[in-house]
Design goal:
212 residues, alpha+beta, Nucleotide Exchange Factor Grpe, Chain A, domain 2, 2 domains, three-stranded antiparallel β-sheet, three-stranded mixed β-sheet, 4 helices, 6 strands, disordered N terminus, protein homodimerization activity, chaperone, GrpE_head, GrpE, Protein GrpE
Amino acid sequence: MDDKQQTGSDDRTTQDFPLGGGVDIVGSDDVADDVQIESYNDDVDGGGEMTPRDHIKLLREKLRESNALKQEYLDGWQRLKADCVNYKKREEEGKGEFLKFAREGIITDLLPVLESFHMAFSNKEAWGKVDPSWRTGVEYIHTQLLQVLAGHGLTQVDPIGAVFDPNEHTSIGTVPTDDSSLDHKVAEVAQLGYRLSGKLIRSPRVKIYTQG
């Protein structure tokens, strides 16, 4: 009885037990002697191996490509930025031209009002007979109007005594003279001229001296 138990115990001791569902334990002798180091073949077509030098060369090529792409994006961004700046500049210039045109139209419409003041003041005899207090008030209004318009770039052109310039003046008649120094000079200004920011928007109507 004792011998059987001992024999059974010995049998169980020498029996091979499977590990993890029938997979035998591998001994240390089955481990490969040489372990292959990771090869640089990830970027090689066909699975060929690369040396470290080849791998560095490939990385440098990729770096150059990345730098070229970065420069392309940078150039595109700079062009876009320049286009945006130019667009804003054109918008500001267009807005300025529009405001200038609108201002010129309004001021041109006011020129007949200024001309009415000028005609009233030119008749000194009749203007001198006007009630002094009323005359002072009208002259003050005229001065205020001129100051406001001058603030927007309007200036009067009164060429009395200047040499007649057909590009700047409109002749409506002549005044004979024996003085050669007055020949072709402005003798009278029938209607004042006006400039807006240096641009002549109405030429003065004048009479010029002519030597007889």
